[in-house]
Write a structure and sequence with these properties.
By secondary structure, the chain is of the alpha/beta class. It folds into two domains: 2-86; 88-224, HUPs (Rossmann fold, 3-Layer(aba) Sandwich), CATH 3.40.50. The protein contains nine helices and seven strands. The protein has helices at residues 2-19, 29-44, 48-53, 58-87, 111-126, 146-156, 173-186, 202-211, 225-245, and strands at 96-100, 104-105, 108-109, 131-135, 164-167, 192-198, 215-221. The longest helix is centred in the first third of the chain and has 30 residues, at 58-87. The radius of gyration is 21 Å and the shape is elongated. 34% of the residues are buried.
Length: 247
């Protein structure tokens, strides 16, 4: 009973941690899925008084247990696969960086996008032979394309405009890579690329790069800890969607 109670509390704490960003207006389907499974975990490992309430529908609890075990297994497997893309080293052969866009606010990069751009600036500063592609369209609630904001930020931080290629039509990761691949082929930049994005995003980006004839290695920016779990769960769903729907 003590172990069950501890497990229930752990599930409750996990749900609370994942739900915390909602207090400041953050919304994500990944967070909702994670909270749902955490709540199911609380019910599965619930204390005796709640077990009494569910005694007459024990089959429901069994079904929930099976679903929860299946979901946890899938999450672990996909997480392990995602991690393989993160631990790969950055290729010194690659001369092209591709910075994947994300939310911009009032013409400025969000904290997550700023971290990606800062990682690119640092790398470009030590590799003057490299060029960079910034990719991202104008999303919902944004007043200008993400690529435009990224382009301006790089120039403000000392990157010569001659080293920057801008792609402002992509609205999802598959398009970020596909449209960037078109620029790479047009400019004859070679097939080796460095993808600059958050660690959780690297696996899916690498898969799309392979589909487009590119060999990608990662340059990962740090994800704010406040939202790391949410984005990781969301990316698990995105990877499953990629497997099933192809994008």
């Amino acid at each position: 009973m003590k172990l069950r109670r501890i497990a229930a509390w752990l599930c409750f704490v996990l749900a609370a941690l994942i739900a915390a960003p909602f207090a400041v207006g953050f919304r994500s389907e990944g967070a909702l899925a994670a909270i749902m499974f955490s709540v199911i975990g609380v019910l599965l490992f619930s204390p005796k008084w709640l077990n009494e309430l569910t005694k007459k529908c024990r089959w429901v609890k069994t079904l929930l247990a099976v679903c929860c075990i299946f979901a946890v297994t899938v999450c672990w497997v996909v997480s392990a696969v995602m991690a393989t893309a993160v631990v790969r080293g950055t290729s010194e052969e690659a001369k092209t960086l591709v910075v994947l866009g994300c939310q911009v606010k009032e013409g400025k990069p969000s904290e997550m996008l700023k971290r990606r751009l800062d990682a690119a600036v640092e790398y470009l500063g030590t590799h003057p032979e490299c060029v960079v592609i910034v990719t991202g369209a104008q999303g919902s609630g944004e007043d200008m394309p993400e690529a435009d904001v990224m382009y301006s930020y790089l120039i403000e931080n000392g990157i010569a405009k001659e080293r920057i290629f801008k792609e402002s039509n992509a609205i999802r990761t598959s398009e970020n890579i596909r449209f960037s691949a078109e620029i790479i082929k047009r400019e004859e930049l070679g097939n080796d690329v460095i993808i600059v994005t958050d660690a959780f995003h690297q696996y899916r980006a690498a898969c799309f790069a392979k589909e487009n004839g590119l060999f990608a290695t990662p340059l990962s920016s740090g994800t704010p800890l406040f939202v790391f779990l949410i984005y990781w769960f969301r990316e698990i769903l995105a990877v499953l969607r990629m497997y099933i729907l192809g994008y």
